[in-house]
Write a structure and sequence with these properties.
The chain is mainly beta and 128 residues long. It has a single domain, classed as Sandwich (Jelly Rolls), CATH 2.60.120.10. The protein is 5% helix and 48% strand. The strands form two sheets. Strands 1, 2, 4, 5, 6, 7 and 9 form a seven-stranded mixed sheet that branches. A two-stranded antiparallel sheet has the order 3-8. Pfam families: Cupin_2 (PF07883). This is Cupin domain-containing protein.
Length: 128
C-alpha cells in the first residue's frame, strides 16, 4: 500500500484515454478509480454492487432506465443502486472518481454492445 499522498490532478494528467479508469489506491476490498469521460458510455448494470460517482471536474449526467436523468456538477456525488440500468454521459467532458469493489468490470454485468470508445476493464494501474 502506498503511504504517500495521491495528487488526483497529477493522476488524471498521467493518461489521455477516455472511459478507461485508473486505480489510484485501494480501500479494503474497493478500488478508488479516476477516469476522464466525454460523450456517452453505454447502458449497463452492476448486479451485485452499487456504483459511487464523484465529479472532480465538468458535469456528468447519469441516465437511469425508466427514471429521470441525474445531472452532477463538479463536486457532486451520486450512487447508482445495484441492479439499476444506467448510462453515464458527459457531452462537454468531465473527470470523475469512483469507488467499486476490486475486480468490478467498468461495463457491468449486463450491458449493450461495447462501443470502441469504451474500455471494458477492471481498471488499469495508475501509470500503466
Amino acid at each position: 500500500m502506498n503511504t504517500e499522498p495521491i495528487d488526483l490532478r497529477a493522476a488524471l494528467d498521467s493518461f489521455t484515454e477516455l472511459w478507461s479508469p485508473r486505480i489510484v489506491t485501494r480501500v479494503n476490498d474497493y478500488d478508488v478509480r479516476v477516469a476522464k469521460v466525454s460523450g456517452d458510455h453505454l447502458w449497463h448494470a452492476h448486479d451485485d454492487t452499487d456504483e459511487f460517482f464523484l465529479v472532480l471536474d465538468g458535469e456528468l449526467t447519469i441516465e437511469l432506465r425508466g427514471q429521470d436523468s441525474v445531472k452532477l456538477p463538479k463536486g457532486s456525488v451520486f450512487v447508482v443502486p445495484r441492479g439499476m440500468e444506467h448510462r453515464p454521459s458527459a457531452p462537454d467532458g468531465a473527470s470523475i472518481l469512483m469507488f467499486e469493489p476490486t475486480g468490478t468490470l467498468s461495463v457491468g454485468d449486463r450491458h449493450e454492445d461495447v462501443p470502441g470508445h469504451v474500455d471494458a476493464t477492471v481498471g488499469h494501474p495508475l501509470g500503466g
